[in-house]
Amino acid sequence: xxxxxxxxxxxxPGTALAVRTFTIVTTxxxxxxxxxxxxxxxxxxxxxxxxxxxETARDPIPLMRPAARGILHLWPVSRRVNNPANDGPDLLExxxxxxQSSLTLQ
Length: 106
Prior knowledge:
Layout: E1 2-3, E2 5-11, E3 18-24, E4 26-28, E5 39-41, E6 43-44, H1 49-52, E7 74-78, E8 101-105
Antiparallel strand pairs: 1-6, 2-3, 4-5, 7-8
């Protein structure tokens, strides 16, 4: 899966150090993602990668759309995912009580 992103490298005038920054481009949520959040990352389909990367003359603006339904799969996971101190593959396991869970996507 490829997400649309932008990056830049610049020099901090105060320290003259190179700073690399990036952002993930978002768009309105598709029907799958809407229960979780009102927006989602722009997911680029492989045939669109050259247009996004500027390797073709195609306009990249039309690529900034919600992903097709069914690209992402969601399931309830433990609210432990909301704490960055928690780590491990067990955080991806489905839980049976959605009211005490967060949704994850893949």
